Amino acid sequence: MIPAAFLGLLAGSFLNVVAHRVPAGVPVTHPASRCPACGAPIRWRDNIPIVSWVLLRGRCRDCSSPISIRYPLVELTTALLFASTAAVIRLNWILPAYLWFVALTFVLSIVDLEHKRLPNRILYPGTIVGAVLLTIGAVAEGSLDAMPRALGGGAGYFALLLLVALAARGGFGMGDVKLAFVLGLFTAYRSWETLGVAVFAAFALGGVVSILLLVVGRARRKDTIPFGPWLVLGSWVAIAWGEPIAEWYLG
User: Fold this and answer.
1) What is the DSSP letter of 94?
2) Residues linked to residue 19 through DSSP beta bridges, in sequence order
3) Residues 134, 147 contacting (CB under 8 angstroms)
4) C-alpha–C-alpha distance, residues 78 and 99, integer Å
5) C-alpha distances in angstroms, 137 versus 48, 144, 146, 179?
6) Could you tell me which residues are beta bridge partners of residue 34?
7) Do residues 143 and 93 lie in contact, with contact meaning Cβ atoms separated by under 8 Å?
8) Selected residue with higher pLDDT from 144 and 53
9) What single-letter DSSP state applies at residue 60?
10) How many C-beta neighbours within 10 Å does residue 214 have?
11) Tens digit of pLDDT for each residue in 12-52?
């Protein structure tokens, strides 16, 4: 799990870049990272995950402008997610696919919470790469027979949320519908029960949070509340504990 956590720190640093640049329409690979306040290039020694932020005390080396705590928090959270994924999936050929899945869905959740949208520039290529990695892992593990179930789960979850979106008449984002395919793909690969728990958990979590926001006055009935993060969280819960939850419920 320690190597996975270290890889997560590096991945988290990149996810920060993706979450910041893609919604702004800026290429991810160039130009080099700069301070948004003074424009000074970020030196390599100031770009070490978590460590640099702590040593700089959360400020730019050149102009002393504050650097958001979001950056080390994303890096730390990604490390924890990668370590947890390695603990659940274990060391096998499927693990790279699930690490990719976690990174993809985490960065999409960040963007959705901040901008209330799920960019196709992240979702489309991320889904394709995830499907390819899952297929390669399934072949290497001798579990290729699980792929039809995974594809069926992705299509089924997509169709379900498409029906919800059509019924809601604009009150439900199409980004969530497209996200459902990759969520269904990776949860159904585990089992149908895992997919079922993912769907139930997503709507339960999203519903509870929406009600709480309305009760405490942080949202109004006509406000748009991002649903992508709860779809993602429901899938994470299902992948980690889906089958025991389903057995408990059905039993």
Assistant:
1) T
2) none
3) yes
4) 10
5) 31, 9, 11, 21
6) 41
7) no
8) 144
9) -
10) 14
11) 999 999 999 999 888 887 777 777 777 778 888 878 889 88
